[in-house]
Amino acid sequence: MVQKFIIVVLVFVMIIFAGVQLNDPDPVIWIATYLSVAAVGIMKLFNFGNDWVNRILIGAFVVAIGFYVPDVFRWIQDGMPSVVNEMKAETPYVEYVREGGGLVFALFCLLYIVYR
């Protein structure tokens, strides 16, 4: 019962994350990312889903996170300046760190939903 409640919360969080991407420069990618996690959560709640689809989605998230690693290291080398003070990213890696963080969070949510 608690696990289903947590999945419901994660589904709503992913839907909210998707909603705030509407003003992003590349909204389609991020809305699809977050809604895919929400969809997997909804399917899990109704005991419907496909393990292959889940594995492909997890693999895609892991590969995508790999593309953000160099920018995260650049951010760390620059002393980890705040990435949340302003909405507009003043340096390119700020946007990549934010996107990478969102992707990592989505991956953790997806892993929880699939393997709990």
Please give the structural blueprint.
Blueprint (H helix, E strand, L loop, with lengths): L1 H18 L7 H19 L5 H27 L14 H24 L1
Helix pairs in contact: 1-2, 2-4, 3-4
Describe the structure.
- This protein has 116 residues and is mainly alpha-helical.
- It has one domain (2-115).
- The protein is 76% helix and 0% strand.
- The protein has 4 helices and no strands.
- The protein starts with a helix and ends with a helix.
**Uncertain segments:** none
Count of DSSP helices? 4
Class computed from helices, strands and strand pairing: mainly alpha
Biggest pleated sheet: none
Strand content: under 5%
Distance between the termini: 12 Å
Strand/helix succession: HHHH
Mean pLDDT over all positions: 89
Estimated helix fraction: over 70%
Query: Quick one: overall form?
Result: elongated
Query: What is the alpha-carbon Rg in Å?
Result: 15 Å
Strand segment count? 0
Q: How many discrete domains?
A: 1
Quaternary form: single chain
In short:
This protein is mostly helical.
Offer a few descriptive terms.
116 residues; 4 helices; elongated; single chain
